[in-house]
């Protein structure tokens, strides 16, 4: 698996695109593909229309892009995604949970996001982060986090808890229903006329 990961270095942008789903990696991979296509076309298809020196310059620029992108990827190659927790991440989760129970929302969120940077597939940490976001009123962020978790393999162990949290978010989004006593409702014109008629009848009696 380690060798397969390093094969992504063959194509610029692919390490971050394939291993992290990075949008910037996608743009770099597409840009390099376009550069290679232009170089191929100017060398073997449009060779009569394009000067050889221009074609050589395009190949040189393409090679430089490959070298720079590969060197950059080697210096900041994304580490393997951890499966499960080690001692450090487990201790970090305990601290995040304790901060959550103490209602220290900022500390809890900071620790959870640090943990998820180290272990993006930690479903329990993702669930706790979604719950925290709901508790502090950031409902859109909470719903997005929980829905993402529900679609991932990491959320398979937390299906019922995720559904419960999403129901709470839906309930929190509903406007509060205010019950009004009949005596407090404003009188309409018909009500006023009826009241006057009743008073007239009482006086006549």
What do these coordinates show?
It is elongated and about 70 Å long. The protein has 2 domains: 2-75, no CATH class; 87-173, Alpha Horseshoe (Serine Threonine Protein Phosphatase 5, Tetratricopeptide repeat), CATH 1.25.40.10. The chain has helices at residues 2-7, 14-20, 23-45, 52-75, 87-101, 105-118, 123-135, 139-150, 159-173, 189-204. The protein has 205 residues and is an all-alpha fold. The longest helix is centred in the first third of the chain and has 24 residues, at 52-75. 71% of the residues lie in helices and 0% in strands. Helix 3 (23-45) runs antiparallel to helix 4 (52-75) and helix 7 packs antiparallel against helix 8 (139-150). It is built from 10 helices and no strands.
SSE topology:
Layout: H1 2-7, H2 14-20, H3 23-45, H4 52-75, H5 87-101, H6 105-118, H7 123-135, H8 139-150, H9 159-173, H10 189-204
Please name the CATH topology of the largest domain.
Serine Threonine Protein Phosphatase 5, Tetratricopeptide repeat
User: What is the domain tally?
Assistant: 2
Strand content: under 5%
For the record, the CATH architecture of the largest domain stands as Alpha Horseshoe
Spans of at least 5 consecutive residues whose pLDDT stays below 50 are 177-205
Report the order of strands and helices.
Answer: HHHHHHHHHH
- Shape field: elongated
CATH superfamily of the largest domain: Tetratricopeptide repeat domain
Structural class: mainly alpha
Give me the number of helical elements.
Answer: 10
* N-C termini distance: 100 Å
For the report, how would you describe the main beta sheet?
A: none
Number of separate strands: 0
Percent helix range: over 70%
Q: How much is the average pLDDT?
A: 80
CATH class bucket of the largest domain: Mainly Alpha
Q: Please state the CA-atom Rg, rounded to the nearest Å.
A: 32 Å
